[in-house]
Amino acid sequence: MDLTYFSQSIARVKAMENKMLDKAKFEALIEAKDFDEAVRMLQDTVYSNYNIRNFEEGLKKALEDLYFEMYKIVPNKSVVDVLAARYDGHNIKTLIKSKFSNFEFEKVLFEIGTVPLDVLKISIKEENFRDINPILRSYIERALEDFKSNKNPQNIDLIIDKGILKYMLSIAEDSKLEYLVKLVKLIIDMTNIKAFVRIKVQERDREFFKKAFIEDGNIDLDHFLNSFNDSLDSFANKIMHTEHFKWVKGGLEEYIKKHDLGSLEKYGDNYIMDFIKNSKFISFGPDPLIAYIIARENEIRLLRIVLTGKKNGVAPDVIRERLRDTYV
């Protein structure tokens, strides 16, 4: 594919990046005297268009608008689809769980994804998946059958998460865009690493990890199984030859000190930010477009952390410790 195909979209995104919140802005928000002042400080940003006083609702709408805008400006739908598929996963898991409970699900569903929300609702309600991608269909059917047999909602997450990553990889491979394939394989590896650590911490067995393991990444199953009886602090050394060594080592060291798995999540998120920052210097290809979507998602996540903290009177140092790196 001629990568100059994306040049006009990249120019649009570069202009949009100038409106993103930088570290100084986040620092000012953290130091705001209270929630009301933090909300006022956002009036000169793109978030003034949203109901930030009710920030869960406002930030959800901002996220949906991000995807609506990117679908308009990106000439190859696959570039947006490969990331939007994660919201299909969220919607599918929510709809399956709500099917078997009295859970009020409407407010937590996203109007983004590769499958229209109305199609998903009807398909899962009626268990008729003729309008669903074959990969997604097979995993939805598997999750429904498993829950009917085992009544374990955790299995819904395991099955659908695996199916979504398979689906994302198929979108990437069909696009013939090397960067998309590399990104999805990176996400698969990170998902497996986090699952491995969680399962070790929970003292679950090898069979459970085999069930959770997602194929098609760059780190194979045997590599994890051969490390299963080792201590967590030695696991990073077992993947020293991979690009994941630095963030895993940092995350595990902090986890061992604090006993908070959020440390691993934070280091993983920061690694993704470092990965996409290389796209700032790319003039052709989908890289800057993917980077902008992930960067804005990260910005929205950070805003939620800050605003939640300010709303609940959390000390600035505690909020600061919870934040990830910014893109700008």
UniProtKB/TrEMBL annotation:
GO terms for molecular function: proton-transporting ATPase activity, rotational mechanism. The keyword Ion transport applies. Keywords: Ion transport, Transport. It comes from the Bacteria. The keyword Cell membrane does not apply. Gene3D superfamilies: ATP synthase (C/AC39) subunit, domain 3 (1.10.132.50), V-type ATP synthase subunit C domain (1.20.1690.10). It holds the Pfam family vATP-synt_AC39. Belongs to the V-ATPase V0D/AC39 subunit family. PANTHER family: V-TYPE ATP SYNTHASE SUBUNIT C. This is NtpC.
